[in-house]
Amino acid sequence: MLLVWVCCAAQPVLAQGDVPVAPPRVPPAAVVAVEDGGARQAPTQYAGHEGHQYENRTITLKTGDTLFSLHYRACVDESHGDRVGIVEGYLGMPQPSNENWYGGGFFRLALNGEDVGSYRLVDVCVSEQGERGQCEWVWETPAATVRLRFLLEAGANHLKAEAVWQPKVEITKASISLLCYPSFFTSWHKRKGERRVITPRTDQPEGKPFDLVPAEDTYLFYCDRIFDVANGEGKGPCAVLFRPEDTQAGKVSVGGYGTTTDLEVKPGVTQVRMAFWDFTGKTNTAAQAWLAENAVKVRNELTSADFQPQALRTYTAASWSAETATLLADAGESGAPYQSEVERLAGLLKDLEQTAGPGGWPAERAVLKALPQLEQTRWQLKIQALLARGDAMWAK
Question: 285 and 360: one domain?
Answer without folding.
Answer: no
